[in-house]
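TICKET: design request
STATUS: open
ATTACHED STRUCTURE:
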């Protein structure tokens, strides 16, 4: 984060779409920073079970030291995502998306008068259009070409973009296989 100018201590809320490892296992180093370097308050918002799932992840990450040493220093709150709510000054709405057997949360978050839609992993079904409709920016996964189980293909991502021409799209969760030119340019942009 510091390499791209993001102050990890200034992040006051993290929205989790679901608990798959590729969406949660990067959190322990961030939490370590928040425990020992910058103890400002932080809230994690996500699906039911968020406190239990993340607490188990922290405990696995640091073993016997987590509860007596680190947990008392961790200024954290956990919130199960509501259909609509406000956290850390941000208004949000939750849209249930289709992903695997457990589904995923998508979020519409109001930031400085703009709507950011974030899908996490999702299939290209009607709830995704509901999430993206009227958003200024949509951060949506586009895993790869063709039939991608329980995710959205590049072709479906292109169709989604065409259905919402006024929305600026940023695609993530990109396939990193053998398709030439799959990811030519990754940039940090200001939204």
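STATUS: resolved
RESOLUTION: sequence designed for all positions
ATTACHED SEQUENCE:
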């Amino acid at each position: 984060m510091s390499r791209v100018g993001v102050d990890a201590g200034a992040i006051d809320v993290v929205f989790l779409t679901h608990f798959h490892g590729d969406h949660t296992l990067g959190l322990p180093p961030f939490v370590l920073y928040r425990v020992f370097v910058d103890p400002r308050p932080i809230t994690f918002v996500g699906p039911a079970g968020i406190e239990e799932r993340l607490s188990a992840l922290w405990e696995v990450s640091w073993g016997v030291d987590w509860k007596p040493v680190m947990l008392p220093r961790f200024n954290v709150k956990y919130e199960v995502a509501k259909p609509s709510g406000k956290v850390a000054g941000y208004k949000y709405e939750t849209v249930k998306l289709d992903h695997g057997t457990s589904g995923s949360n998508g979020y519409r978050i109001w930031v400085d008068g703009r709507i950011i839609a974030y899908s996490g992993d999702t299939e290209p079904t009607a709830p995704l259009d509901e999430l993206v409709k009227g958003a200024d920016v949509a951060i949506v996964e586009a895993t790869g070409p063709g039939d991608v189980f329980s995710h959205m293909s590049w072709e479906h991502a292109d169709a989604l973009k065409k259905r919402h021409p006024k929305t600026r799209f940023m695609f993530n969760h990109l396939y990193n296989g053998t398709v030439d030119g799959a990811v030519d340019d990754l940039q940090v942009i200001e939204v």
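CLOSING REMARK: The first strand starts at residue 13 and ends at 15. The mean pLDDT is 91.
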